Each structure stands twice: as C-alpha cells, then as structure tokens.
Amino acid sequence: MTQATIRDVAREAGLSVASVSRALNGHKSVRPETRAHVVAVADRLGYVPHAGARSLSMARSNAIGVVLPDLHGEFFSEIVRGMDREASRRGLQLLLSNMHADPAQATQALRAMRGRVDGLLIMSPQMRADGWSSAVPRGLPAVLINSSDDNGHHPALRMDNRAGAAAVARHFATIGRRSIVHVAGPDHNVDARERRDGFAEAIGREIPGALLTLLPGNFTEESGEAAARHILAENIPVDAIFAANDMMAVGCLQTLRDAGRQVPAEIAIAGFDDVPIARYLGLTTIRVGIAEIGARAVERLATMMDDEGDDAPLVEWHQPDLVVRGTTTGSAPQDKS
Amino acid sequence: MTQATIRDVAREAGLSVASVSRALNGHKSVRPETRAHVVAVADRLGYVPHAGARSLSMARSNAIGVVLPDLHGEFFSEIVRGMDREASRRGLQLLLSNMHADPAQATQALRAMRGRVDGLLIMSPQMRADGWSSAVPRGLPAVLINSSDDNGHHPALRMDNRAGAAAVARHFATIGRRSIVHVAGPDHNVDARERRDGFAEAIGREIPGALLTLLPGNFTEESGEAAARHILAENIPVDAIFAANDMMAVGCLQTLRDAGRQVPAEIAIAGFDDVPIARYLGLTTIRVGIAEIGARAVERLATMMDDEGDDAPLVEWHQPDLVVRGTTTGSAPQDKS
DNA sequence: TTGTATGCGTTATCAA
DNA sequence: TTGATAACGCATACAA
C-alpha cells in the first residue's frame, strides 16, 4: 500500500522505465499510443514522481530556501505572500527556515538547505554578514534582503530607509516643526541605523537650526511608551516625533494622548512600515511595498539560477512612500486613506 | 568550485566513503583518531551533506509540507511561527505551499510534495475535502487543520467555532441584549458556517424570544460596512451585532459610529479572531491560540511519522476564549487588555 | 574497525 | 521509437 514508483508503472505497462520517464515528461520521441498507455497506467496506479529522486538525477530541485528572522504579523505574511506568488508562477517551491539571532543556529539553518534548494533568499537585518556568510553552501546562488553588507558576494535588495526617513524630515519641515525627537530602533539592526542616520542628516539639511533629540528603543510598543514617558518626565522640548517603526509610534501616540497632549496640534507623530494598525489610528508613516520586494527577490534569484549571467545592479534600492495621515495634520484620526 | 561531496572527503582523507559517512554520522564503530581526521578534512573542504541524496537513501527527508490558503496578516504569521517553533525543535524543515481555491491547483500543490516531505499539514477551510483528498500522496501521513471533514481519513485539529460563538451569545445574554444581528462569513467556509450555526443555536438557548437577523458577508471589512449600511437603511432592529470575524466587525463599528450610533450603549459589537487591530479599537472578540494550534499540528504529525501508532483522538478541538472589551461594555475603547 | 557493493527513484546517454 | 545502464550523493548490509 505504498506509493507506486516508476518501475511499477513500467512493469504494469510492459515497458522500460526509460520509456515511462520519457512518456511522462513529454519527450517528442515517443509514440502517441505508447504515451497514452503510460499515462493511463500511471493514473490507475496513482503514480506521483518522487521529487527527491528526480532532483538528485537532474541536479535541480526547483525549490528555493527562504531564511527569515522573527517577523511581526503583516510584515511576515506580506513578504512571504510576494515570494509565494512569484515562486508558484515559476513552479518553484518555498522551503522556509528561521534566521535565528544566534550565529551557530543561523549557520545550521543555512547548511541544512544544501541539496534541497537551488537558491537562497536571506534576510538578516539584525546580524552582521560575517556571522553567517561563510555558511552559505558553495555554489548556491543567493539574494540578500535588507541585510547588512556582504562585501558584494551576493546581490542585495534593500528598502531605502534613508530616503523614507528623509521624506519624514521634509514633511516635518513643511508643517513647520523645529523641535524634533527620533525614537530609534535597536542599534544592531541595519534598518534602524539607516533610519536614524538618514533622518538626522535630513533634519540638518531640511530644518536648519532644528533641535534633534535621539531616544533609544527596540521596535516594541512598550519602548515607544517608555520614550514618551521619558519625554514627559524630562520635559524634553518637542513638537514632532519620528519613531523608527509604527509600533513604537503607536506607543508614543497612546501615552502622549493619555497624558493630555494634543496630537498633532502640539506634537506631530510619524512612524515607519505602514502596518494595518497605522491606518486605523490615522498614523502618518512610510509605506514599504514589502510584497513587491519579496516577489522581486524571487525573480532575481530565479534568473541567477537559470543563466549564470547576472547583469542587474548588485544592490537594488526600493523606494518607500510617505503616507500622510491625521497624526501630522489636522484631519480626523478616522481617516482611512 | 562546486560543493565537495562525500567522495571528495573520502579521497582526501584516504578512506572509503563508508567510513566517512560513519564518522560524520557518529557511529560507534569508528576509531576516534579516524573520526577526528575525517572531521578535519570535511571541515577543510567545506563539506556539507547533500540533503536530497541523504533523504533518498534513508527514505526520510526530515521535512514536512505545509499547505495553507491565503491568510491575512497576523493569522498567517502566527500559525507559521507556531509550526516553525515546534518543527525546528524537532529538526524538521518546513516546505510551504499555497492551498489555492481551485481544486486542480490544490491537487498540484499536494502532489508536488511527494518525495520531498515525510508528512503534510493541510489547511483548507474553504474547499470540500473531496476536492483535494485524493491528491494526498499515498503513504504520506497528514494532519488537517480547520478543514472540512475528510471521512476520518486523517486526524484533524479544529478550533471550536461553535463554542466561541456560544460564548458571544452568553455574553450578549449577560448584558441584556435581545435584538441580535449576525454578519456571517462566506458560506463555503467551514469556519463561517460553524460560527453562524453555533451562534444561532446558542442564541435560541440563551436568550429565549430573542430576535436574530442573519446578514451575509465575506470576511472583508467592506462587507462589514455593507452589512452596517444595510442595517441602517432597512432600519433593522438591533442592540447587538456578532460578526463572523474581526475585520467585518471593524467595518460595522466604523460605519455605525460614523452614522452617529452609540457603541456599545445602543449597539454592542463583537468579532472573532482577536487580530491586533481589535485590541486597539477595543473590540470584544474571540481569541484563538493560533500559534499553539500550529505547534500542536506539527507535534501530532511528527508522532505519526515516527511510530505508526496513533492513539490520539481523530479530531482534536481547540477552545477559544472570549475577550471582553469596550464595544460590548461601558469601558473606554482605549482599553488595551 | 574499515572496505565493497548495493539500493534509494529518477533522468540521460548510448545502442539497438 | 525503445531498452539497458550509468550516473546523482549518500547510507548500510555484509565481508574482510
């Protein structure tokens, strides 16, 4: 009662395994009636080709490995959705694995991909590349997503955090704010660093003489609340806050409003990511086409797997968009743009 | 510059491939110095075992196939996170695939798993089991998650939609509501049907003489808005609404408040799922331990893969919890329980 | 303790 | 057009 193999089909059809293989794979050199017979027998026996054996023989698995860190809700589902869309369009399977923060585990995850996949999609914003880059199985093409630099060993897709942060700075300038606070993300995270540096630079350029205060955070809502409490307790001068992600911005927003501060009248607040909650709370933020990045990553990897030739630029920057909502303008928080 | 194979290691170490295999896999019958030598050589050559060849030889891939439909944000990431946690604990890889609504594509996805994985996790709330159940490769153990019945061919994990819906009904009874509206999900979805039927039954039991109106929906926020507009336009008597999921409840909530209705004073509103937005809007809802279900599914599948014996009950019901928030009580919507 | 040989399920090369 | 057979990379039964 186990699965039928190609040999079962061959025996039952009175043919050689070679002929069955050719018939099933649509080779031209096989008589129509033979093919029909083979297909009928295969169908009757419920034959399904063994993908493992097939990929061993063909030296190609038609699968790609996806190594992601612990991602929060929408971000995770969107990037996987984008990858899946493009992958299934190309007949590729997705082998998912977690990019643990621990280099040893990361190494393990990467090595486990050897012999299972034809290429790798690696996302590791929180770890330096030398922590894992030697673990990428030799000969496996790989595309990096929002990861710290790899010395150009692999092509990379990056969202342009600096450009997004600069857009917020320009927006703050437009609405006339001058006492700015940035709540940063964890320092080991490359996205967080770029948003912070890009923002600081843009503020200096866009709002000469502005006061910029940097507060630490770790991407959680709680750290956003803590930052807001710190602002209140220390009486830090502020008429605009840019948090390095939406969840921290939400924490700020709630805490400041609970404390009776008017948003945006007294203090404008902006985040980064455009998670669904941002829309409901009317939070100004930076939208990232995350599904598109996932799909594009698969696309680039697929071309690397097919033809060795790789003409696309090594690093591809994806531009995010500023989404202006109620927390930086007068309109109601119910705005659902 | 391609990957080294076990033969390269054997040649370089002056041993047979058998010895190298034994040394690397920790067999007892190999001299310590031999093992050390082999490990050193393997390390120097950057040898990584070819998982495909290994699984062909061992008739075991240490991977499990996960076939999910298009899931929204938090739901998707949580269930995958739960699966991944348990899978990596057991040294299993996750092969992800989309359970398309089209039976032909679903069949394809299932068949593509043959020879790649040792077991299957299948979630298909929107399609009848006969649409795909014959496509499950013979001999592959499988666990069903929130899928319509399979005639007992495979063990199943189900969230107890009826119990969740009944909890809402009891809650409505407690707060003294009598004119009830249920905004249902798509009829082809088994979760939606169970929530509707369980709710109707519980209302009959808990609130004798209550008026229950059933409105159609499709799980989207827009269909929730439409239902609310319908209620307003037709002047349907209502003091409590149970939507089959949170997104529709959110649509109702916004539309009714925009129309000037008091929630919860005039109309109480409850949803199902407890997505993150529910917390921010203070929406009463039903919380499902979705990550736990994912982890438990892997656990059950793993035991099926190891020992053939399967003693656990065929269908395992997971109980959801009622989460009472502002949309059904007097407390403020900012409640962050 | 180590080596030889076989098989896992397929595809591909070469003859027939 | 078809068949026999050698890979693919590894694990293991059996022999030495």
Automatic annotation (TrEMBL), chains A, B:
InterPro entries: HTH_LacI, LacI/GalR-like_sensor, Lambda_DNA-bd_dom_sf, Peripla_BP_I
Record carries keyword RNA-binding: no
A molecular-function term among this protein's GO annotations: DNA binding
Pfam families given in the database record: LacI, Peripla_BP_3
Gene3D superfamilies: 3.40.50.2300, lambda repressor-like DNA-binding domains
Keyword set, alphabetical order: DNA-binding, Repressor, Transcription, Transcription regulation
SMART domains the record matches: HTH_LACI (SM00354)
Cross-referenced SUPFAM superfamilies: lambda repressor-like DNA-binding domains, Periplasmic binding protein-like I
Superkingdom classification of source: Bacteria
Name recorded for this polypeptide: LacI family DNA-binding transcriptional regulator
